[in-house]
Amino acid sequence: MASSLSRAILESSQRASAAGGWERFLSTASWWSHVEPAAKDPILGVTEAFLADRSPHKVNVGVGAYRDDDGKPVVLDCVRKAEGKIAGNLDMEYLPMGGSIKMVEESLKLAYGKESELTKDKRVAAVQALSGTGACRLFADFQKRFLPDSQIYIPIPTWANHHNIWRDAHVPQRTFHYYHPETRGLDFAAMMDDIKNAPNGSFFLLHACAHNPTGVDPSEEQWREISYQFKVKNHFAFFDMAYQGFASGDPENDAKAIRIFLEDGHMIGCAQSFAKNMGLYGQRVGCLSVCESEMQAVAVKSQLQQIARPMYSNPPVHGALIVSIILSDPELKSLWLKEVKGMADRIIGMRTALRKNIEKLGSNLSWEHITNQIGMFCYSGLTPEQVDHLRNEFHIYMTRNGRISMAGVTTGNVGYLANAIHEVTKST
Ligand SMILES: Cc1ncc(COP(=O)(O)O)c(C=O)c1O
Question: What are the pLDDT digits (tens) for 365-381?
Answer without folding.
Answer: 999 999 999 999 999 99
